[in-house]
Amino acid sequence: MAKKLRAANSIDKISELPTDILHKILYYLSHKEAVRTSLLSKAWRYIWCTLPNLDFSDTSAFTNKQHFVSIVNSNLQRYFDQRTCLQELHLSISLNHSDRGLVSLLKRWIPLLKNMGTKKFCLSIRSARHIRACVELPSVVFGAESLHYLHVQRFVLGQKAIQGLVIFKHLKSLHLQQVCIDEDIFHKIILSCPSIETMRVDRCMRLRKIKGNDLRNLKDFFFSRFQNVAFKEGLCRIEIHPPSIEKINITCGDLWLQRGANFLNLKDLCLRLVRSSLDHLSSCKFPCLRSLKIWECEGLKESHIFIDAPKIVYFEYGGDFVPHISIIATSSRVWDSYLNLRFSKVTSLWYFKLNKLLKLLSHSNICVEINQYSMKYRDMIVQENINLGQDDNCDKPVVVERLSLRCHVSLFSSLLEGTFRICRPRNIGDYHYRGDIKRIECLWKILMKRESGREDRKFSEVRMEIYERNKDLWHPTTLSQLPNYQPGEYTVTRFAIK
Amino acid sequence: MAAETGTPTTLTLKSNDDELFSVAESAAILSVTIRNMVEDGCAGGVIPLDNVDGKTLASVITYMNGISAIPADEEKKKSYRDKFLSDKDFETLADMVLAANYLNMSCLMDAVSAKIAQVMEKKSVGWVRRKFGIENDYTPEEEAAVKEEHKWTFEGVETDDDN
After folding, report:
1. Measured between beta carbons, which residues in chain B are less than 8 angstroms from residue A42?
2. Got the DSSP string for A225-283?
3. pLDDT, tens only, A91-111
4. Boundaries of each SKP1 component dimerisation domain copy (chain B) (predicted)?
5. List of chain A residues whose C-beta atoms are within 8 Å of the C-beta of residue B128
6. Are B109 and A24 in contact (CB < 8 Å)?
7. Same domain, yes or no, for A67 and A12?
C-alpha cells in the first residue's frame, strides 16, 4: 500500500513500472529505439539489456552492413555470455556476393539459438543479386529449428541448401519469393513444416508441382508467377485443399480440384489466369466462402459452373468472355457481384450470354463494367441489330446497380442500345468529372434522348450527380455546372436513372 | 454456472478504494485472475482487487464489456481496442497496464504496451522525459558517456512534436 501511495504522488509513473512490464512496452520498439531509452534516467540505463526480444528487422537504422553485423554480434554475445533468455529474434538481411560477415554471423549464431531459449526466430534473407546469378542460400538457414517466420528472396534452393534440413516445429509462415526451386526440394521443405499456417510462393522458378493437402494447419495460401515464365516452363500444378484452408490466391497456376471436395473453412478464393478446367468447382462445397474472385480463367470458357456458397458476400469476375456461373447463396442474404467484361466483338450471342449471367446473379447487387479489348477502338465491333432468340424472355431486364462503359465514345450508342435490352441500370458511371468529360457529354446526349424519346423502355427520369468525397454524398448537378467544381473535393459523376 | 442455469451470472468486483462494480461473468473472465477465482468457486461474494483503484477498474470494465460484445472477429476487436485507447492519457495508460498485468488480461496488456511504445517511438529523449515526467538523474558527464556509448542510436529521425 505504501508503494501505491508513493506512485500516486509522484508524476513519473512509467519508471515505477516493474521491469517485466517495461520489457513488454519496449518489445514493440526496434532495437535502436529500445537502446535509446537508456538515456532517459539511471533507472532506464540497463532495462533494454535484458529484453526477451531483439528486433533487427529495420536495416536502414544502421550506418552500414559492417555496423549491422557488429551490433547484432555483440548483442547476441551478451545474451549468450550472461545466459539471458532470448525468446524472440527478428533479423532482416540482404546478402551481397562479398558478404562473408553476414554469412559467418548466421553460421555462428543459428546453431546457438536453441540453447539461448529462442522460440520465435523470424528471418528475412534476400540476395542483392539478380536471380540469374544463381546464389545458393547458405545451408545454415534450413537448420534453424526455432524459425517461426522465414522469407527467402532471390536465391537458388538446391540440394546443398537443405542438406542440414531439420523439422521446423514452430514455423508458421513461409514466404519464397523469386526463388529457384525444384519440386522435390520444395516438398522436402514443406514436409518439415508441420505447423505451417501461411505459405506464399511468389514468382518462383522451376517449380512444377505443389501438393499441400497434408498441411493440416495451412490457412493462407498464395501463389503467383509471371506469365512469361509460366509459358516457358509450363504451369505449376497446385493441389491444395487441407480442411484448415481459409484463403487461396492463385495467379498463373493450375488448380487441381478433387471432385466433391469440401472446403470447410475457405473464406476467400481468388483465381487469376488459371488455365486448368474448373468444372469440379460445381461439385465442391464452400460452406464458409465469403469472397470469390475469378479473373482471366480460360478454364471457364466451355463450362457451366454452379458454386455452392451459402455465405457468399462478394463475387467478382473479369475476363474477355462472358462465363456461365451461378452461385447458390442463401436467398435472404444480401451480396454483391462485380463483372468486368472486356470485348473485341459484341454480337447477339454476347448479349445472350450476358443476359443469362445477369439472370443467374440477379439475387445480388450487380455492377457491370464493359471495357474494350485494346486501344484500337476502330477494330472493335458492336453489332447493332441484336437478336436474343425467342426462348429468352427479355421483357423484364435485370436490375443492375451500376453500369460503366469504358470504351471509345463512338461505341456508346450501339452498346447501350443492346445493353438496355437486357438490363436496367440504376446508375451509369462513375466518370471523373474532368478527365472523362467526353464520355459524360456523350452519355448525357444519349440518355436525354431516351428520357424524352419514344423508345420501348424509356426512362422516366435521368439525373446527373456528382460525388463529394469528404461527405460521402452524391449531389444533383448538370453538365454546365461541372467546370465550377473544386478539384480534389469532388471526384466523379454518374447518371441516376428512374 | 451460467451456462447451466441459463441466466447470466453477475460478479461483484471491489477496487482498493472500496468502490463496488458489478459485471457479467462472461465479460469478467477475460481476466485470467478472475476466471481462476470463478473456476475455484471463490467468486460467490465480493471479489476484492487490491491492486486496482476505482477509476482504473471502471475503465477496465468498460473494456471488458465492449470487447466481449464483439463476436470472434480479430479485426473488429482490434479497431475497438484502438478506439478505446485513443483518448487515454499516459497516466491512465500506466494505471491500465498495471491493472491488466495484475488481472492477467493479455489482450489489454499487449494493446496498452503497444500504445505506450507507439507514443515513445521516434521521439527525442527530452520529449519522452517531459511527456512521462521522467526526472533526468544523470550528471552531465554520465549523460554524455551513455550517449557516446550508444551514439549510433541517436542518429536519424527524432522529433519533439506532440503528434
Report:
1. 137-138, 142
2. --HHHHHHH-PPEEE---TT--EEEEESSEE---TT-B-TT--EEEEES--S--GGGGG
3. 999 887 667 788 888 999 999
4. 108-152
5. 37, 40
6. yes
7. no
